[in-house]
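Example record used in the benchmark description.
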Amino acid sequence: MNVTPLQAMARATSTLVAEHDVTDVLAQLLEDAADSMGASAAGMLLLNPQGALEVLAATSHRALDLEIYEAQERRGPCADAATSDATVVADRPESVREQWPQLAPLMADAGYRSVHAHPLHWHGQVLGAINIFHDHDLSADTLAVGQTFADVATLVMLTPNHLSTPELRRIVESALAGRTIVEQAKGVLAHQQSLTIEQAYGELLRRAREDGATVTETAERVVRSAYRR
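Model output (structure tokens):
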């Protein structure tokens, strides 16, 4: 049964609010990623604490063999994406041969014509990458979906199974504190510039985008500035 990318991501993220086995969820996510993108197979490499690449999962034996090769040789789309923190694309067989001459015949024997790999990154640190293999040439819209799956995979790995009650309380209180400062800033801007509350929120968003800051950071500056007057 084919799934859409939205259904696949919803299935993965829904597991994060309950006890879950990370390896199992990631294996299912790879299956769903390949299925929803009409791909032949998918695989995942992770960087271990010593910096070596290891295979976490693959959706077929042929893909597993390719992932093992990439992990051992540190060469290939998934290995390159994991070590460079950049999307790697070979949209047709000629591109595969040009970039990885040794890997190309192995991919051809497996029946794959194209591949794209996307890094799993978290706050500037690379954790690994996912590989998506196709038996046809690639289209551009597939690439954005591939990176989204990589981002979901990262969240699956880093979302804890359990948080203590004090930790949960701290997170909730932080969210509520952020909302409070935003509401205060909206009031300040509405008063200072004779705006409606809706217009004030729009102005707050505009300033945040212009400054490259979060809405909360911008709201804090607006409120601090008002107190200094």
